[in-house]
């Protein structure tokens, strides 16, 4: 087929990232199929090139100019023209036929790339994860050349993790599904109230199933359930009853919908929000007041201690229930039986001064094209301005993180010039916006930072982050952290355990001790707001509060949409009891500048 024929038929709208994605996928499949690596490398390179193009790929295809691009050879150009015509690169379509489906699942095992997968598959003749587990356990994997005992153990551990958590998903994934469901249901006939409940309402970092609660009259319920189980995104109906239906969505997530009578809504919402531990505490408080609390309401007890269902205590909101039981309103994030009863017996929600999204004045921890970010410093700054932020702390990777484009000393100096120039310009244009010169410095093995003293002095602030040698023994790791936190330049500790939710366990280190050290040296430990991390874990919130540890809500943005991850960080901060005054990026730029300098 000639190129002009392709052109005439080109009627599928592509985007640069769609093309890049398919090229990357082709590279992965080539490796899974055991193809010569130079072929895969060519696809990888082409993917990166297309991703980085400023021009629209559709224009280039129309003008037949693909081979003019450096890094795109004739054969890959043909693949892209065919993709424009057919929707998928034909070679990829073929490869998908050829590669056993089981092997594709192996890609989710951390530490196992497509090349290794092919090798194990070929040598041991297995395709399923269960078989891989067996071969790791009986030593066959360890015996393969280039594998060894350690690799086999790592694979096993990762399989364990996958199995343990395959029933759960990340907060952002659950939120997207819940929003979609909520919007599809909220305006249906008969729906009087609707809310998301369960772990999602409590803003847990991972979610099992999604719980939705609706208040409606009995006769309205069947039609609402019908609509629910017939939604486009529903793949499977797991159960359908008079008060509850469950479905599995196309993403593989379970959603439970419960419909209760309007007068039960407050009690039901509280009950199905949980946590179970919080509910136990609430029921006990009710009993102490000769009341019964359950999912149907709050009721008085008769003399012999039996629930008198004819004597409900009128409660129309959750707030009413808390009030009846002698408590201020406990926000869902705090319903974990971690001190909320003691606190809200004496205080109101206002007095907790919990962090809110609107308190965040600026963005700290963001990457630019100087390292592995996708946008320039100016583009990131403009995106921050659009969102109403007053500053941006750019923190590209440091030189040891070569794999992520870490900055050499020369580059650091050039970046500073660019930032100073931009700040000057903003001032001239009368913009109340400022860029801080930061760096995400690798925390080296001994805990030292990545640049000599005279360079470190030039930054406005330094984030010290763990990126390599994660599985150091805990004592050694604590020494590493101690040194990093004691360093006068370290102002923020980045993602302290380096965990990746549902994928990789974090490093083992005494977090309680780390919190004490950070508080002692007036250094913040970030809440990395990426939904993959949400690290430091909210469970350390009470310890952090006790020590007066400061935090920063850090989106770790590598692109513009990443900036909006701040909302997950704020949710986790609330869950960890962080008040506004313990979050450094609620300060104004001037206040923050002073804080950055206070350790020295
Ligand atoms: P998840 O789904 O594992 O992320 O966590 P949750 O907290 O959403 O748990 P789920 O969906 O099993 O139940 C929703 C809420 O229902 C839970 O937070 C508390 C409430 N609940 C209280 N007692 C029970 C019980 O005995 N069984 C169940 N299934 N739920 C209960
Ligand atoms: Ca749930
Ligand atoms: Ca549930
Ligand atoms: Zn990092």
Write the layout of secondary structure elements.
Blueprint: H1 3-9, H2 16-32, H3 37-52, H4 57-62, H5 74-86, H6 90-98, H7 101-106, H8 114-124, H9 129-137, H10 140-143, H11 148-165, E1 169-170, H12 171-185, E2 193-196, H13 198-201, E3 206-207, E4 210-215, H14 221-229, E5 234-240, E6 244-249, E7 254-260, H15 265-273, H16 276-288, E8 291-294, E9 297-301, E10 307-313, H17 318-324, H18 340-346, H19 349-352, E11 362-366, H20 377-386, E12 391-397, H21 409-428, E13 434-442, H22 453-456, E14 461-465, H23 474-486, E15 490-493, H24 511-520, E16 524-525, E17 527-528, H25 541-547, E18 553-554, H26 560-563, H27 566-575, H28 589-597
Parallel strand pairs: 4-7, 11-12, 12-13, 13-14, 14-15, 15-16, 17-18
Antiparallel strand pairs: 1-3, 2-4, 5-6, 6-7, 8-9, 9-10
Bound molecules: 2'-deoxyguanosine-5'-triphosphate, calcium ion (2 copies) and zinc ion (ZN).
Can you tag this structure with a few keywords?
600 residues, alpha/beta, DNA polymerase, domain 1, Beta Polymerase, domain 2, 5 domains, six-stranded parallel β-sheet, 28 helices, disordered N terminus, binds 2'-deoxyguanosine-5'-triphosphate, binds calcium ion, binds zinc ion
């Amino acid at each position: 087929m000639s190129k002009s024929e392709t052109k005439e038929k080109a009627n599928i709208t592509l985007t640069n990232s769609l093309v890049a994605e398919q090229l990357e996928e082709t590279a992965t499949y080539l490796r899974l199929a055991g193809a010569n690596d130079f072929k895969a490398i060519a696809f990888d390179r082409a993917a990166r090139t297309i991703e980085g193009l400023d021009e629209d790929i559709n224009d280039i295809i129309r003008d037949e100019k693909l081979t003019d691009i450096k890094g795109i050879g004739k054969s890959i150009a043909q693949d892209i023209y065919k993709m424009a015509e057919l929707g998928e690169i034909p070679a990829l379509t073929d490869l998908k036929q050829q590669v056993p489906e089981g092997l594709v699942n192996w890609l989710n095992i951390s530490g196992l790339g497509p090349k290794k997968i092919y090798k194990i598959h070929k040598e041991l003749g297995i395709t399923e994860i269960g078989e891989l587990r067996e071969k790791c356990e009986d030593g066959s994997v360890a015996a393969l050349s280039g594998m060894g005992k350690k690799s086999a153990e790592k694979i096993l551990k990762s399989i364990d993790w996958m199995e343990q958590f395959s029933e759960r998903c990340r907060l952002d994934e659950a939120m997207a599904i819940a929003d979609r469901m909520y919007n599809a249901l909220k305006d249906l006939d008969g729906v009087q109230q609707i809310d998301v409940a369960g772990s999602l309402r409590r803003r847990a970092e991972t979610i099992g199933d999604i719980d939705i609660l609706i208040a409606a009259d009995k006769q309205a319920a069947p039609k609402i359930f019908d609509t629910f189980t017939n939604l486009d995104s529903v793949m499977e109906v797991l159960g359908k009853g008079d008060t509850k239906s469950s479905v599995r969505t196309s993403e593989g997530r379970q959603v439970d919908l419960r419909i209760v009578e309007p007068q039960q809504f407050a009690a039901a919402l509280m009950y199905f929000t949980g946590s179970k531990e919080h509910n136990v505490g609430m029921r006990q408080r009710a009993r102490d007041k000769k009341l019964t609390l359950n999912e149907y309401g709050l009721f008085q007890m008769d003399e012999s201690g039996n629930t008198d269902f004819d004597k409900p205590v009128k409660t129309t909101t959750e707030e009413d229930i808390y009030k009846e039981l002698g408590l201020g309103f406990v926000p869902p994030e705090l319903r974990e039986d971690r001190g909320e009863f003691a606190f809200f017996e004496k205080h109101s929600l206002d007095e907790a001064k919990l962090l809110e999204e609107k308190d965040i004045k600026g963005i700290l921890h963001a990457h630019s094209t100087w390292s592995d970010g996708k946008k320039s410093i100016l583009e990131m700054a403009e995106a921050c301005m659009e969102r109403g932020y007053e500053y941006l702390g750019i923190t590209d990777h440091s030189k040891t993180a070569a794999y992520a484009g870490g900055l050499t000393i020369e580059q650091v100096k050039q970046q500073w010039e660019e930032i100073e120039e931009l700040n000057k310009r903003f001032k001239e244009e009368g913009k109340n916006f400022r860029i801080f010169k930061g760096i995400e410095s690798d925390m080296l093995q001994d805990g030292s930072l990545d640049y000599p003293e005279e360079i470190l002095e030039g930054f406005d602030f330094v984030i010290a982050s763990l990126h390599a040698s994660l599985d150091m023994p805990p004592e050694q790791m604590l020494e590493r952290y101690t040194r990093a936190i004691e360093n006068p330049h370290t102002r923020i500790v980045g993602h302290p355990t380096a965990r990746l939710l549902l994928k990789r366990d974090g490093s083992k280190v005494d977090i309680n001790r780390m919190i004490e050290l950070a508080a002692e040296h007036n250094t913040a430990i970030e809440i990395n707001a990426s939904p993959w991390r949400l690290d430091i874990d909210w469970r350390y919130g009470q310890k952090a509060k006790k020590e007066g540890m400061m935090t920063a809500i850090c989106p770790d943005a590598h692109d513009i949409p990443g900036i909006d991850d701040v909302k997950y960080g704020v949710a986790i901060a609330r869950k960890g009891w962080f008040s506004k005054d313990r979050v450094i990026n609620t300060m104004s730029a001037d206040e923050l500048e002073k804080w950055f300098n206070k350790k020295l």
